[in-house]
Amino acid sequence: MTDPAAAVSDEASPDSPPKAPSSGRVLSGNRPTGPLHLGNYVGAVKNWVDLQDEFECLFMVADWHALTSDYADSSHLAEYSRGMMLDWIGAGLDPEKSVLFIQSQVKEHAELALLLGMFTPIPWLERTPSFKDMQAQMKDKELNTHGFLGYPVLQAADIILYKADVVPVGEDQLAHLELCREIVRRVHHFTGVAIFPEPKPKLSRVPKLLGTDGRKMSKSWNNCVYLSDTAEGVWAKVKEMVTDPARVRRTDPGTPEICSVFSYHKIFTADESDEIATDCRSAAIGCVDCKKRLAASIGGLLDPMRERRAAFDAKPEALDEIIDDGNTRARKVACETMGELREVLHLPA
Ligand code: TRP
Ligand code: SF4
Question: In what order do the strands lie in the sheet with 166-169?
Answer without folding.
Answer: 99-102, 56-61, 25-30, 166-169, 200-203
